[in-house]
Design goal:
The complex is a heterodimer of chains A (605) and B (80). Chain A has 605 residues and is α/β, with parallel strands linked by helices. Chain A has 22 helices and 17 strands. The chains are: A alpha/beta (605), B mainly alpha (80). Chains A and B meet through helix 1, helix 9 and helix 19 of A and helix 1, helix 2 and helix 3 of B.
Chain lengths: 605, 80
C-alpha cells in the first residue's frame, strides 16, 4: 500500500490508521503466506499509537501480528516479576519502549565522581537486568530503545563533557548498551538517539505530548519511530531487500551518455554535480560491501552504457554489477529478468531511477519492488537510506566471543539488584502519599482524571469542575484525592474518591466514585486510600460503607475491587451492576503496608 | 473561516480518524456520544486538528471542553 511505503506521510498514517488497517486486513485475507509473529510491547510511557502504527507497517509487509501490551509504564515490573499472561503469550519479540524519562537516577550537582559511577551502574543495571531476564525466561528477540537527549541543557555546552551533565550521562549509558549489543545475538537497539536528532530533537521531545498524553515523543513522530522498529523486525525475519537496480543517466552519473558522450558525463572531479554523483556511487559501493547485489536497469545501448564505468573517476566499475540490462525493453520486464537471473524474489529488488515516469511504470506492475521517490541528486543518498531497505542485523563470530566476557561481568552485577518478591519491590519504591479532601487548587486535575480514567474506575461518573466544587463544598459528602511519590519521581494526583452520607439511613455512607490513574496500577495505593476513607468514616460515625460497580467496556479490572477490599456482595443487577457492603463497626483490618501517608493537620469537617 | 466551514472541516477530520461513513455533528453533541470517540482517539483528533487547522488544544483546555459546540468555539477563538 503506497501510504505505508517510504517516503510516507506521517500525517496521513496517523489520521487514517483505522481505515488503512481495515483495507490491509481485507487484502491480506486471501494471502496464505502471512508470517505469524507475536510481539510484546513493554512501555515506559504511552504506547497505544506506536503499537497501532507498527502493526500497519508489518501487516503491509506480509506479517500477521498478535500483540501483548504492558500496562502504562510497567515495562520493568511486568518482566521482572512472575507474569503468567506474558508467559502464556510466549513472545517472539519483546520491544522495550523506554526513553530518557525512564532512567532511574541521574547525577546531582553535588555528587562526587564515585557517586556518579555508582549511579551509572545502577541505571544501566536497571535495564540490563531486563535483558537477562528475557534471555532466561523467553529466549526471544529483544528490541530496546536507546536514550534520546533531554530537550534542555542545564549546564549549556558543558552538559556533554562534565559528568554531572545529563547529556554526558546518557552518552555513557548508550555506549554501555552498544557494548552489550555488539556481541549479543537476538538483541537489537532501536536508535532513537539518532532518530530524534534526524527528526529534530525540539520537535521530537515536544513536552506538550508528555504532559497531555504521557507520550515520550511527539505523536506526529510516531510513524518514524514505528518504521524504524519495522525495519529491524523485517530484517531479522530475512525480509530485507537483496539487490539494487540502478538506472544510469542522471541516477549514478550526471548527464546522458548517449548524447553528451562519455567525457562529458559528470562523475567525480571538480564541480558540485560530479561530487554529488561520486558520493552516490560511494554509497552504493558500501551497500555492496555489506552484501547488497548491484545491477543495472537502463534504457541505453549496452556498449555505450558501460563506457561510463571506464571513466577514471568512476567509483563503481563494470565488475561491481552482477547483471547489466542496458537495452530498450520496458523496465519492469528487465526487472523480472534480473530477478530470475539472480534467482531471487522480484520483491527483493530496489529500483533507483531519476525519471518519475519509469518509476511509475515499474510501480504500476505492483511487484513489491522498493521504489524510493528520488528528488534532486543531492538528496538521493538520504532518500535511499531512510527507506531502510538493507537494515543490518548480522554479526560476525569474533564479536560473539566478546559477548561472553560481557555476559559474565554483567551477570554478577545483576544479582545485586534482584528482589525476592513483589513486596520487596514495593518496599524499595519508598512510596509516599498525600491523601486529603478535595481542595480548590486541585479541581482542574480532579476533573481531568474523572473525565479521562476508564480502566480503574468503579462507576465512570463524569463531572465538570463546577460540579466538583459543589460536591466538595457539600458538608454531607466525603471526598479524597491521593497523590503519590516514589523514588523514581512524583506521579502527581492519581486517585479520587467521593461519596455521600445517607440522609435517611443513619450511619451509612455511599461511595459514588472511586478511580485511579493507570499510571500507578499495582502500587497498592488503593489500600492506602481505603484506610484513609475508613478513618474519615469513623470520625463521621459511619458504620456501614456501600460501594458500587457499574460495568463498562473498559473497567473489567475493577469488577471485583470491593470484594478484594473485604466488602461482601449485597446484590447483582441484570446489567452487571453490583452493590457491596463493608461493616466497619465490626472488626476490619488496616490494609496499607507499603505507602507512607503524610499526616494531615487540617481536616475537612 | 466561518463557523460552518470549521464545523465541516471538523466533521471530515473526525470521520476520517474514527473511520465513520456518516457523521452529523451538532453543537450540543457530547464527545462521548460519538461512536468510537474515546481517550485514545481523542489524541488523534486533537493531533489532526493541529496539523490541518493549525490550532493546538492546550493542556488545561482539554478539561474544559466536552461538546462539539465548545470545541468549535475554541477553534474559532484560536484562529483569530
Amino acid at each position: 500500500m503506497k501510504e505505508l511505503e517510504y517516503p510516507f506521510s506521517s500525517k496521513t498514517i496517523l489520521k487514517k490508521k483505522k481505515s488503512l488497517r481495515r483495507k490491509i486486513k481485507e487484502k491480506n485475507k486471501f494471502d496464505n503466506n502471512l508470517l505469524n509473529i507475536k510481539i510484546a510491547l513493554l512501555g515506559g510511557s504511552t504506547t497505544r499509537d506506536i503499537l497501532e502504527v507498527l502493526e500497519l507497517f508489518l501487516l503491509n509487509d506480509g506479517f500477521n501480528i498478535s500483540f501483548y501490551e504492558s500496562d502504562y509504564g510497567r515495562y520493568w515490573e511486568e518482566l521482572i516479576f512472575d507474569n503468567k499472561q506474558l508467559d502464556d503469550f510466549s513472545p517472539d519479540i519483546i520491544y522495550i519502549h523506554t526513553s530518557m524519562r525512564n532512567i532511574p537516577v541521574f547525577p546531582e550537582i553535588a555528587d562526587s565522581k564515585d557517586e556518579i559511577n555508582i549511579k551509572l551502574d545502577k541505571s544501566y543495571n536497571h535495564f540490563s537486568q531486563l535483558w537477562y531476564t528475557i534471555k532466561e525466561k523467553y529466549n526471544c528477540i529483544i528490541i530496546q530503545n536507546n536514550f534520546e537527549y533531554p530537550y534542555y541543557r542545564v549546564m549549556g555546552n558543558m552538559d556533554i563533557y562534565d559528568p554531572h551533565g545529563k547529556i554526558w550521562f546518557i552518552n555513557q549509558l548508550n555506549q554501555r548498551m552498544n557494548e552489550y549489543a555488539i556481541g549479543e545475538r537476538n538483541f537489537y537497539i532501536n536508535d532513537i538517539n539518532y532518530l530524534s536528532a534526524s527528526y529534530g530533537l525540539t520537535k521530537w521531545s515536544d513536552p506538550y505530548y508528555w504532559y497531555m498524553y504521557k507520550y515520550a515523543l511527539a505523536v506526529p513522530a510516531i510513524p518514524e519511530l514505528a518504521y524504524n522498529i519495522f525495519n529491524i523486525i523485517k530484517a531479522v525475519y530475512g525480509k530485507n531487500k537483496k539487490a539494487i537496480m540502478v538506472d544510469l543517466d542522471n541516477t549514478i552519473w550526471g548527464g546522458v551518455i548517449a548524447e553528451d558522450g562519455v567525457n562529458q558525463i559528470q562523475i567525480g572531479g571538480e564541480g558540485a554535480k560530479g561530487e554529488i554523483f561520486a558520493d552516490i556511487q560511494s554509497y552504493l559501493k558500501i551497500q555492496k560491501e555489506l552484501g547488497a547485489i548491484l545491477t543495472v536497469n537502463s534504457k541505453n545501448d549496452f556498449n555505450n552504457a558501460i563506457q561510463g564505468f571506464k571513466r577514471p573517476e568512476s567509483i563503481l566499475h563494470q565488475e561491481d554489477f552482477s547483471v547489466i540490462k542496458a537495452n530498450w525493453n520496458v523496465k519492469s520486464t528487465n526487472a523480472l529478468e534480473i530477478a530470475s537471473d539472480l534467482n531471487i524474489g522480484i520483491d527483493s529488488l530496489v529500483f533507483l531511477d531519476d525519471n518519475p515516469a519509469e518509476r511509475e511504470e515499474v510501480r504500476r506492475m505492483d511487484l513489491g519492488i522498493g521504489i524510493p521517490e528520488l528528488s534532486d541528486p543531492e538528496y538521493y543518498i538520504q532518500e535511499i537510506d531512510k527507506a531502510g531497505y538493507f537494515e543490518c542485523v548480522g554479526i560476525s563470530d569474533e564479536d560473539s566471543k566478546r559477548a561472553k566476557m560481557y555476559e559474565e561481568s554483567t551477570q554478577r552485577m545483576k544479582a545485586e539488584f534482584l528482589y525476592d518478591n513483589y513486596d520487596d519491590f514495593l518496599n524499595s519504591l519508598n512510596m509516599e502519599a498525600e491523601i486529603r479532601p478535595f481542595s480548590k487548587s486541585f479541581y482542574p486535575r480532579i476533573a481531568q482524571l474523572i473525565n479521562k480514567s476508564n480502566q480503574f474506575n468503579l462507576t465512570t461518573k463524569r463531572c465538570t469542575e463546577g460540579e466538583i466544587e459543589k460536591i466538595s463544598n457539600n458538608p454531607n459528602n466525603i471526598t479524597l484525592y491521593g497523590k503519590l511519590k516514589d523514588r523514581f519521581g512524583d506521579n502527581g494526583l492519581v486517585s479520587v474518591i467521593f461519596g455521600h452520607l445517607d440522609l435517611k439511613q443513619h450511619r451509612v455512607f455511599h461511595i459514588d466514585e472511586w478511580l485511579m490513574s493507570c499510571r500507578v496500577l499495582k502500587r497498592s495505593l488503593e489500600y492506602a486510600m481505603m484506610d484513609e476513607l475508613i478513618k474519615l468514616c469513623i470520625r463521621r460515625e459511619v458504620e456501614i460503607i456501600i460501594g458500587y460497580y457499574y460495568p463498562t467496556k473498559k473497567n473489567k479490572i475493577v469488577e471485583n475491587f470491593y470484594g478484594n477490599m473485604g466488602f461482601s456482595l449485597m446484590e447483582k443487577g441484570k446489567d452487571g451492576v453490583t452493590k457491596w457492603k463493608l461493616n466497619i463497626k465490626d472488626e476490619f483490618v488496616w490494609k496499607n503496608k507499603f505507602v507512607k501517608v503524610e499526616e494531615c493537620s487540617n481536616e475537612q469537617e | 473561516m466561518n463557523r460552518n466551514e470549521v464545523m465541516k472541516q471538523l466533521t471530515d477530520i473526525i470521520k476520517e480518524v474514527l473511520d465513520l461513513k456518516h457523521l452529523f455533528l451538532s453543537d450540543d453533541m457530547m464527545f462521548e456520544e460519538i461512536e468510537g470517540w474515546d481517550s485514545l482517539q481523542n489524541i488523534q483528533i486533537f493531533v489532526a486538528i493541529e496539523e490541518e487547522m493549525n490550532v493546538r488544544i492546550n493542556v488545561d483546555e482539554t478539561t474544559e471542553i466536552s461538546s462539539i459546540g465548545m470545541l468549535v468555539n475554541l477553534i474559532m477563538e484560536k484562529m483569530k
